Every structure is written in structure tokens, then in C-alpha cells.
Amino acid sequence: MTRRFFLDQHGCAKNQVDGELLIGILTDKGWRKTTEPEKADLIIVNSCGFIEPAKRESIEAVITARTAYPQAKILLAGCLAERYGDIFKTEFEEADAFFGNGDLSQLPVLIDKLFPDTLPTEQLPAKDRPASSGSKKKIDATAPSPLPHPAVQNAEHYQPAQPAVHGRPFLKSARPFLKPAQKGVCCGSRPELLNFPRSAFIKITEGCNNCCSFCAIPLIRGAVRSRPMDGIVNEIQDFVQKGYKEFNLIGQDLAVYDAAPPLDKLSNRLNNNLPAFPAQTKQGHSGLAQLLRAISGIEGTFSVRLLYIHPDHFPPDILPIMTADTRFLPYFDIPFQSGSDPIIHAMNRCGSAETYLKLIETIRAAFRTAKSPYGEAVIRTTFLTGFPGETQADFERTAAFLQAVQSLWSGAFAYSQEEGTKAADMKKQVPTKIAEQRKTSLNELQLKITEQKLAAFCGLETDVLIEEIIPQEHNSEEENTQCCIALGRAWFQAPEVDGAVVVNFSQAQKDSEGQPITAGSLVRVRITALRGIDLEANAL
Fold this sequence. Notes:
Layout: E1 4-9, H1 13-28, E2 32-33, E3 42-47, H2 52-68, E4 73-78, H3 79-91, E5 97-99, H4 107-114, H5 150-153, E6 164-165, E7 168-169, E8 177-178, E9 199-203, E10 205-206, H6 217-221, E11 225-226, H7 229-241, E12 246-250, H8 266-272, E13 281-282, E14 285-286, H9 287-296, E15 303-306, H10 318-324, E16 328-333, H11 341-346, H12 353-369, E17 378-385, H13 392-405, E18 409-414, H14 432-455, E19 461-470, E20 483-489, E21 501-506, E22 522-531, E23 534-539
Parallel strand pairs: 1-2, 1-3, 3-4, 4-5, 5-8, 9-12, 12-15, 15-16, 16-17, 17-18, 21-23
Antiparallel strand pairs: 6-7, 10-11, 13-14, 19-20, 19-22, 20-21, 22-23
Helix pairs in contact: 9-10, 13-14
């Protein structure tokens, strides 16, 4: 019988791609993915280790899985395993194995250690089968942990659990731990994507060299590596041939794609708090511009969105390429983090509020001059409140900066101390309560800006990628005229982080390809109303 695995996915889009690759690796090895964890021989928690709430969520998921599904072996994979695997392998006894986020292709090595026999659980002798709880519930990583556990309170200072959980003995020395070297950008088969139909994340870089003083990504993901251009183009071509309509290019910083590496080592940059390294160009063109030009050569109807570009070295040579090919969406995710120069510099960044505002104007002017059919370029950004040393005056400058940027979308997050980063040891740590208050204030300000800017879309026609059909009761005699409802996204809405478009349509209406409207359809709509941060539209 074929072994089964269940994937419990956490973290960002980059981690999601890792999860999709893990599915492909196990599938190629003969395993079968299941959506029922009670039937799984292996439960993989693909974890996030970036900030405290994310760490807690991933740890709770492991504990919940161990409690609810004692028949399965639990594998903690991803960023949390990469960052704390050396500690967890002897102390976090709820997990049976640990796998870092380096070379994912090495997963079969660990699986062979974790499952040295060839028999699935059902065929093991009765004396070797783990006891089953009989539980049928799904893993809910956001629910409170069913067991009190020190790791949930503080992942950095994790304390060992009891030697056994639910009578299941743990042999520390027998638990496999694999931390593959972080080389290149892992790629391979992705037989199942974990996001919405006909939309795909395309990872083009891994790691980061910017060394922002608050960020642990270089410690977790390593130095920046770029994926070969032909591999990216071929993957997009394959997805286009399969009918995919949307591609979101991701990486910790797209601006440094295929840029020459810094002369100094990443460890030196971390230790000396050096500023961000600018993206170098080849023959006068950035690596990202060369990649976009190659993607532009792919035939077909699709759109491309760029996510995560560091503001200190935005490559302006991508703008003429994007304005010339309207398949490149004028949507830019640029994390400014602060609008106060002293805080920006304390974050180990080279820019300033003034240079960042000039960058936004440069981007918008390019699409305005080209008379883009999309109109104004859309900006998404993030802000970090309560950074060490942030005064009320600093915060007010950030609020004024947000007002000046007029981003369609932004998210504010309270600063979290991350061990190993420069900011963790800085003086004048801001009380959590104040950081949270400032976060709330920025989010409220952004909500007002978002509502004002979204109102301008009312009355306009645009294409919407349908993500989900909302079931409705229909009269069989009038099913072709009965109103149906779907949720989707327009070009100015990125997956999972922005608002949605609620589309009203009849069963008789067709999508852009003349097919019945379903999840994954591209539908022309007219926007009719604003509903908070969502829009309502009628299919045309």
C-alpha cells in the first residue's frame, strides 16, 4: 500500500512554493497526498520562523498534530526547523524529525531515515502500531494548544517537554535531523499548487543580502541566490500552456535578481551592520529587466505581478519594459517600513523619506506618460511600528509619509525582537503596548486611503480572475437567469493580502474564453459599488 502524507502549510508565498515542491518530491517518491490527516502516515508542518506569532503558530500546529493524530509521524520542516533545528532535535519531542529549508531535493534522504521499513502503518505488526485517538478533526494551527507547552510561549527559549507524550516514547538519538546546504534556488515538479486556480507564484530568488537590522531572513534563508533565467521562463511557459492566467514573481528582493554578489561575505555584513548592497547591472541593464524582457517573449494571454522590491535599489530600467507590454501589471510591493529618516537609517537602510517619495513619483510618472490602460500604478507597502528608538515624532513622520505615498494597500506590524539581529540588542526598546497602538493608527489611516482610492474604480470595466464560486440555491426552471456570486481579484489586488471583487453573474454568462464561469475563469466585469475594502461588480 502507498504511504500517505498531509501537508500543514504556514508562512509566506515563498514558503508556499517550498511546500508545493515538497509535494512534488514526495509524489515522485511514490507517496500520496491526503487532505485527511487521520489517514496520514506522515504529517509535515511546513513552518514559518520569522516573527514570534508565526513561530508560535507553527509550534502549536506540531503539538496539535501530535495530540490529535498519534498514529502519524510528525516532520517539522521550513524556516522554524532551519533556525532552531539544532535545539529542537533534542528538546522538541513532539516532532519525529526536522528538515531545514535549504536544498529541498534532499528530503528523500530524511524520509528514508524516518521510514526505514517498506510497510505502511496499516501493515505493521500490531505491537508496532502507534495507538490511535480516533480523532477526525483537522489540524487547526490557530486554535489554542491542547497542551501547555513552553515552546508556545517563547520559541527562542524553548524548554524540553516530558520524556513521553500520550505514552509514546521518544528516542532523541533516533530522530532524524537534516539541514541541507543553502545553495541555489530549489526548483522541480509542482504537481499541486496551494493557492487559487490558474494563478501561480514564481520564485526567482532565494535569501537576502540587505541585512536590515530588524530582519532575521538572512539568518534563516541565507545569502541571496538567483534562479537561472531559462528555468523561470520555461516554468511560466509550461503554466501558460496549462491555461494559467496570472504569475506573481516572488523573492525576498526582486531588485537583486541576477545581480553580482557583494565583495564582502554575508557574515561580515551582519556583524558590521553594513548598508544595503545595490543591485549591479550587466551591460547597462539590471538582471530583473533582462528577466522581464525574456518573459515578454512568451506568447499567450496572462499577467505578471512583481512582489517584494527593496526601495533602496529599485531598478528603473524595468519600467519601459512594463509599460511596453501591458501583461506586466503596474503593481509594486515596496516595503518602506518607516517614513522617519533616523529610523530608516537605524534599520540599516540607505534611503530617506524624500528619496522614497521620488521613487514613487518616478514609477507613477512612467505609466502616466505611457498612457497605460491601467491608469495609475498601484503601490503596496509595509510599515514597522515600535522599532527601537522610535519616538512619537518619528511615528508622526511615518504617518505623514503614508499620507503622502497614497498607497492603495499597506500593512502595519508591531516590531518583534528577533535574536541574532542588530535591532534586538538596541537600546530604547519601545513598549509593546505603544507599538501596537501605533500599528492600529497606521492601519486605520490606510483604511481611509484605501476606501477613497477604491471608490475611483466604481463604474470602470476590468478583468477579474475568479477564485471561488459561492454556492447559491437555484430554481431549476430559471437556472440560466438565476443570479450567481463569485469571489475574485482584479489586477490591483494581489493574492491573499488585498481585497476582493464580488462578481454577480448568471449561469448563462460565459468567461473570456467562452466557457461557463467557474473558479479560475477570467471574467470581464463592470464595478458597481464599494463594500469596505472589497468591490462589487456585474459580469459583462
